[in-house]
Amino acid sequence: MRRAVRRMRDSEILPQEDRSAPAVEPGRGLLRPVSFSTLDLPAAQQFEAWRDHCRSVVEMTESLGPGPGYAARFRMWSFGHFALSAVEAPACRFQRTRAQIRRDSLDLWQIHVPRTGSMRLRTEAAQISVPTGVPHILSLDQVVDGDRTERDWLCLFVSRDAFPGLGPTIDACREAPLGSAMGGLLGHYVESLADSLRTMTEAELPRAAEATRSLIAACIAPSSPAALDAEGHVERARLGRIRQIIRQNLRSTRLGPDRLCKLAGVSRSQLYRLFEPFGGVARYIQSERLRQAHQALSDPANTRDIIKVAEDFGFFDPSAFSRAFRREFDYSPTQLRQTAQSGWVAAPIRKSPGQAGARDFASALRQI
Fold first, then answer.
1. In the chain, N or C terminus with fewer CB closer than 10 Å?
2. What digits encode the pLDDT tens for the residues 308-361?
3. C-alpha pair distances (Å), 68 with each of 35, 37, 74, 87
4. How far is CA 50 from its chain centroid?
5. Which residues lie below 8 Å from residue 182, measured CB to CB, with a gap of 6+?
6. CA angle at 238 for the pair 182 and 311, rounded to the nearest 5°
7. Can you give the residue ranges of every domain in the chain?
8. What's the whole-number mean pLDDT along residues 241-251?
9. Distance (Å, whole) CA 59 – CA 53
10. How far is CA 62 from CA 47, 56, 140, 152, 173, in A?
11. Residue of 221, 267, 57, 228 lying closest to 141 (CA atoms)
12. CATH second-level architecture of 234-341?
């Protein structure tokens, strides 16, 4: 497997667990973050380790730091339909490409709150300068590239499922800094939330999620009263809903354009137009199925035959599955299975004790 063979084993590349998280007190069940740090690695390995940590969601293309090292730290807490990350990292250039969007199919909003430093972003629709202290909204379904100085920032990832009726309104606020008084209130809340999650118990998470949902709605919804009438925003909301339907029906042999049109209440022409940027609706469905098969084969505990895994996601011809898989990921299902079972991993993210599930950054975000 071309990418994996150049990487080190967990024991060689992963730093020690982030000790800044509080210890779990008996009976309290404190929430523990997913943590990653390059601080304990040799300077020459730090940037590559950080790239590996981030690349399932965003590609770090170049370090702009003053020296060979890249001392960076990441922590992320998940609660309900939300995940909050706290990141400290030196300057760099980065990008999220259309190929990455097709591969991971993440469709979350990001509310960035920069605490220090500055950032410049370029999307397909705008160029954005992000000042310190002012929240701004992006979405993981956007192609973006940019550069930033050394920064300390928070990012609140928000599932669209948290706001089934406000999607177009929130989309209308993307790319513009939330410089109003209500935007400032949201920024202060996110900072306070980051402090609170360090000592919050699991029993308190549902209330934290509801408080977060209510405050986002109160702060963002009034910012764009005409958004619901804008056709472009309605289209984005419709696309998000259809993508969710696809994810929920990946194992169905009936999943196709006709079925999607019925489930989503759209015409064929609307469906094809919405998925044209993804190479067509059939291509998108296949990519989603391949991604799910990839996730299953990456699990060393999954010992089912490769063809059985393929059949779970609608691939009944082993040769066709292998060809499609190789086109999508540049290596075969057999190579991935062998790599996973040998103890090598696709991205060096470390789980804290008590944190379930995620093998990489993207997998952690899919859990919200």
1. C
2. 999 999 899 999 999 999 888 888 899 888 877 775 544 333 333 333 344 567
3. 23, 16, 20, 20
4. 16
5. 218, 219, 220, 222, 223
6. 125
7. 13-230, 234-341
8. 86
9. 10
10. 9, 16, 21, 18, 29
11. 57
12. Orthogonal Bundle (1.10)
